[in-house]
Specification:
The protein has about 400 residues and is of the alpha/beta class. The protein has helices at about 75-100, 115-125, 135-140, 145-155, 190-200, 220-230, 280-295, 335-345, 350-375, 400-410, and strands at about 130, 210-215, 235-240, 270-275, 300-305. A 5-stranded parallel beta sheet has the order 1-2-3-5-4, sandwiched between helices. This is 2-oxoisovalerate dehydrogenase subunit alpha. Pfam families: E1_dh (PF00676), OxoDH_E1alpha_N (PF12573). Belongs to the BCKDHA family. Keywords: Oxidoreductase, Thiamine pyrophosphate.
């Protein structure tokens, strides 16, 4: 029997820092703001393959918008974006406190990732269908979805629009282009591709967009979706939100050290963009590029949004057990709110007084919504009618449902 000349060993990827370590991001290499070229929308995946390994950035360290990806947004649009991000963070803070107060069983914040959902929610129409994961609350907030309705869903109270059928934070609103969130990782990506294929098959004019975390790219659903998106040129935008950490495993466990997540698209013949996810303007520009490609029947685009999850994975998580406590503060791409604020200030369209007022307004808006929702009830204080569990599943009740309803007395 032939033997190896060396003993075999198994490599288990390790992050650059653990609790107690000094955060180290020296291994990250970024393009300077404005340095990455912007290809024509009709470029082939092969022609633009280098963009899967680079990083599209628009805002430089001084807050100036530079380079070919600058979307040249008007100041009012920029202000709306900043205010939506501020409101999203204020909403997160209040609902996280609500969990600590026993008012809900679960919550997930999107701290540090606000630019992604807010910018993309503003670029696309409500009629385009979004297939989100659980950190895209900014999509609803940017589109003006009532905060009270979001809170009612989180509290599973009598006014819960989903009637207690979903885990808190798993919103659903067809009117706002927000497909029901699933707790199963990766399922929303093939759903988005299928929805987009149906839109194209019908000759409609609507496109789809989905989001998935870096860890969930290891799921088979992600790769199945890329195959269908490529073969049928589905009008869909497929986002990988690389926020560096899944629950307690870092992105290297899903293959993020071997290559970029954007580059996974190349093997499927799909164009890929790798974007600074904390740069509101870069996220906007890349989404706009992919949107034009989809709307002109040139197919899908994969976008890796390079960011950092600043908060715990959820209220059930303690990140101090697996990463340096101040790692988020040392993230080299900064905070998305601070960066857009800096840009608006540099161009003379924002100041400290406006910022203080925006923070105050957001807190007051969230507080008012909280009072209204909590008056209906928090967890366990009120709940949807029991009879709703027999409704909206079957078009017509069969004898089993009739009998079950009779037993329950509704």
């Amino acid at each position: 029997m032939k033997k190896n000349s060396h003993a075999l060993s198994l490599r288990v990827p390790e992050p650059s820092g653990r609790p107690g370590d000094t955060p180290d991001f020296s291994h990250l290499q970024f393009d300077a703001a404005g340095a990455v070229e912007r290809p024509e929308v009709g470029a082939t995946a092969y022609e633009m393959r280098d963009l899967a390994f680079r990083l599209i950035r628009v805002l430089d360290d001084e807050g100036h918008a530079v380079g070919p990806w600058n979307p040249r947004l008007d100041p009012e649009t920029l202000r709306r974006g900043l205010k939506a991000m501020i409101l999203t963070r204020a909403f997160d803070d209040r609902m996280h406190r609500a969990h600590r107060q026993g008012k809900t069983s679960f919550y997930m914040k999107c701290t540090g990732e606000e630019a992604i959902a807010v910018a993309q929610g503003m670029v696309l129409s409500r009629e385009d269908m979004g297939f989100p994961t659980y950190r895209q609350q900014g999509l609803l907030i940017a589109r003006g979805y009532p905060l009270v309705e979001m809170m009612n869903q989180i509290y599973s109270n009598a006014a819960d629009p989903i009637k207690g059928r979903q885990l808190p934070i798993m919103y659903s609103s067809k009117e706002y282009g927000f497909f029901t969130i699933s707790g199963n990782l990766g399922t929303q990506v093939p759903q988005a591709v299928g929805w987009a294929m149906a839109s194209a098959y019908k000759g409609d004019d609507k496109i789809a967009i989905s989001w998935i975390g870096d860890g969930a790219t290891a799921e088979g659903d992600f790769h199945n979706a890329l195959t269908f998106a490529s073969v049928y040129r589905a009008p869909v935008i497929l986002n990988v939100v690389n926020n560096q950490w899944a629950i307690s495993s870092f992105m290297g466990i899903a293959g993020g050290l071997e290559t970029t997540f954007a580059s996974k698209a190349i093997g499927y013949g799909l164009p890929a963009l790798r974007v600074d996810g904390n740069d509101f303007l870069a996220v906007w520009a890349a989404t706009q590029w992919a949107e034009e490609r989809a709307r002109t029947n040139q197919g899908a685009t994969v976008i890796e949004l390079f960011t950092y999850r600043g908060a715990p994975h959820s209220t059930s998580d303690d990140p101090s057990r697996y990463r340096p406590g101040d790692e988020h503060e040392k993230w080299p791409l900064g905070d998305p709110l601070d960066r857009l604020r800096q840009h608006l200030t540099v161009i003379g369209e924002w100041d400290d007084a406006q910022h203080a007022q925006a923070l105050k307004d957001a807190v007051e808006q969230v507080r008012a919504a909280g009072k209204e929702s909590e008056a209906i009830g928090t967890l366990g204080q009120s709940r949807p009618s029991v009879k709703t569990m027999f409704e909206e599943v079957y078009a017509t009740e069969d004898w089993r449902l009739v009998e079950q309803r009779r037993e329950v007395g509704v």
